[in-house]
Write a structure and sequence with these properties.
This protein has 130 residues and is α+β, with helices and mostly antiparallel strands. The chain is built from 3 helices and 4 strands, in the order H-H-H-E-E-E-E. A hairpin with a 2-residue loop joins strand 1 and strand 2. It is elongated, with a radius of gyration of 27 Å.
Length: 130
């Protein structure tokens, strides 16, 4: 082979393998886009209730800087989860006079916190009257 000439076999093989790889990538990305729209994919991405409880507690702790004591409620919503998390806001002696708070936390389907709000403050020894 003379200097400056290319081997035809390499030139022929490269484009064909690149085209195949590109087609595969395009096919994969379009399949993902189609499956995102389907309810099956959304249901598969939704975290479980125990995991949603854990995520709500962990992410609220990061925001507030206080360790949550418990998750008193969790329920699925159309776009994720909603949880009520109990947090010690002010520790007092005796412990029954400590100030507690309930925070309502909203998570998306994958367990990421999207909103929270304090819904109630009460003393630890307080009993709800309903």
């Amino acid at each position: 082979m003379a200097t400056g000439e290319e081997d035809d076999t390499d030139r022929v093989r490269r484009p064909s393998s690149k085209k195949t790889a590109r087609k595969t990538v395009k096919k994969t990305s379009s399949t993902r886009a189609e499956s995102r729209e389907s309810g099956t994919e959304r249901a598969a991405r939704r975290v479980s209730a125990p995991r949603a409880m854990r995520y709500a507690s962990e992410q609220l702790e990061q925001l507030l800087g206080r360790v949550p004591e418990s998750v008193s409620a969790v329920q699925p919503t159309e776009d994720g989860w909603q949880a009520d998390v109990e947090v010690l806001e002010l520790e007092r002696v005796p412990g029954t006079t400590s100030v507690m708070a309930t925070y309502r936390v909203r998570l998306d389907e994958e367990g990421e916190l999207v909103a929270y709000e304090r819904t109630r403050r009460y003393t630890r020894g307080q009993i709800d009257r309903r």
